Fold:
Amino acid sequence: MFEAGFGVTRIAGASALTLGLTLALPGSAVAADEARSPTFTRDIAPIFQDKCEACHRPDSIAPMSLKTYADVRPWARSVKARVQDRQMPPWHIDKTVGIQKFKNDRSLTNDQIATIVRWVDSGAPQGDPGDMPAARQWPEDQGWNFAAAFGQKEPDMVITSHPFTMPAVSQDAWDKRVTPTGIREPRWVRAIEIRPKTAKGRRIVHHAIAYLEQDEPGAPAPLGLPTPFMEWAVGKQGELMRPDAGKLLLPGSKFHWDIHYSQAGEEITNQVELGLYFYPRGHKPKFRNTLQLVPAALGTLDIRPNTIAVAEGFTVLREAARVESFQAHMHLRGKAMMMEAILPTGQKQVISHVNDFNFNWHTTYIYADEAAPLLPKGTILKVTAWHDNTAAKKSNPDPNQWVGWGDRTVDEMAHAWVNIVYMNDHGFTIEVEKRRAMQAQNTEQQQ
Ligand code: HEC
Structure:
């Protein structure tokens, strides 16, 4: 009835008519309402196939399958709760501010959420089994996230870290050994994934970073840090370059791992796999993609017991840039992170705001081609991080502890991982022109 309420302002007459009918024929009105209430087979299964089964199917990363009515029915209330507060599917971007067009958006639309909520509220009925869509086919194992997009089953190359055994009970541990890439000729990379090799391994890998060491005269030098090639943390899918950008790998290159292991109450041996997808031989993309750590804080944080703490960091872009993606990195008390651009004119724009950070989900938000921010030289990236060290934060192990910056999961961090493509001022002008044309075309198509 609430939905009809929206109609009242527009067509008051129609609403009065509905009311009249309800009074005159209560029985048939109820029947009509039932006909309208969503059923699993007709309305819900297609949504779950599209937005949930990627993770919720037998033997996958989620705790339960959501494929069949029998699978789903016991979870109906929990589904409603998680979907309503946008905890599931994991997508923690504030929908009211900043860029909203992404290449990897897995969130539900407002209509889909409303349908799921109405379905649960009306008793989560199965409906006509004949309405059930054909089962969606999935690869047997968890698979690689980007392989299908390139018409492949596997990445072009998989580099594996050394086996590491984490005892059942242990302090956090780091594996910082080195693996040569073994590559024989220069190759440009267009997508990268990192994953723990086994489902069990997922339980002990908190994050994995691969730093690249290679000899390249005149290469863009990062500011005092080794060049991070790829970072992975719980819940991340991977990095996908735009078609005009890539990362270069040279013969003789090596990866320095920084793999952070946490105990899982059971002895587990793990390796981490780095999957690489290459551009065709000889293809050189126009731009080079750099993965940058953009701090709200680095090295110090002062998070007092039972408070919400704020940290801010400012990073100047020394060249014009296109920002490709954003990923917030915090630990158990992470509450929110915002990245803003302060333009040379002084104007400030919100790029992205993760307003409901969840440590289980270090999602990389990859901007759509027509939305990736183009920022002139001299722009400042401002990153603000909020930590909630109160009992209100469910994942907080102890709100009465002071918490500082540190590597362990119980310490905190506050930085964004941002993929950036740098360009000279001339290249920037060309990109801005291209963007205008793209947006004009999009507007035309919408009319
Ligand atoms: C990217 C993978 C992924 C997608 C997509 C996803 N889930 Fe989940 N879901 C998980 C994982 C992993 C967990 C357990 C960890 C957690 O709670 O964050 C979970 C937990 C849940 C839970 C809580 C289960 C419990 O133990 O109480 C519910 C309910 C749920 N998901 C529903 C959904 C629904 C409904 C969708 C689709 C609309 C969906 N999820 C999409 C991975 C996913």
